[in-house]
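re: ur question from yesterday

yeah so i grabbed the chain u mentioned. its 133 aa long if i counted rite. heres the sequnce exactly as i have it in my notes:
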Amino acid sequence: MSLASEFKAFVLRGNVLDLAVGVVIGAAFGKIVTALVDNVIMPPIGLMIGGVDFSAWKWILKAAGADGKGEVAIQIGVFLNTIIQFLIVAAAIFLVVKIVNSMMKKADAAPAPPPEPTTTEKLLTEIRDALKK
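ran it thru and got these structure tokens back, copy pasting raw so excuse formatting
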């Protein structure tokens, strides 16, 4: 088997394509959550606690020089935004997994009807019944 055909078989397996789709959708979902946190959730929270802009909230370790460069700061607000984004993504994933698991339990709960006997089994049953008479 050539390297190209092995690679084609690898890529066309369902798991690889499902993973690729999941990564692309996850990246897009991450952007949506970032926009939600930065533009919808954090501004009202900042307003409620006194008009704080969380994205600019930082702890300055070394002030900038006269040229405006060289500031060293810990970006506390950016870190808080990232924590809130993580919590939203984790909650969304938890809910999706919970829904999928409940759907799978419903599918597993209904047992399949037993298979119909084969013609050999039917014939043997008839012979058995005839011998009993």
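noticed a couple things. The mean pLDDT is 83. also Strands lie at 59-62, 72-74.
anyway ttyl
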